[in-house]
Amino acid sequence: MFQWKEEYKLGVDFVDEQHKKLFEISSRAYELLNNSLAIDKYDRIMEIISELKDYTVFHFSQEEEYLIKNNYKKLLSHKIEHDAFIRKFAEIDLNKVEYQQDAYILDILEFLSKWIIDHILIRDKHYSETIKKEA
Question: The domain that contains 100 carries what CATH number?
Answer without folding.
Answer: 1.20.120.50
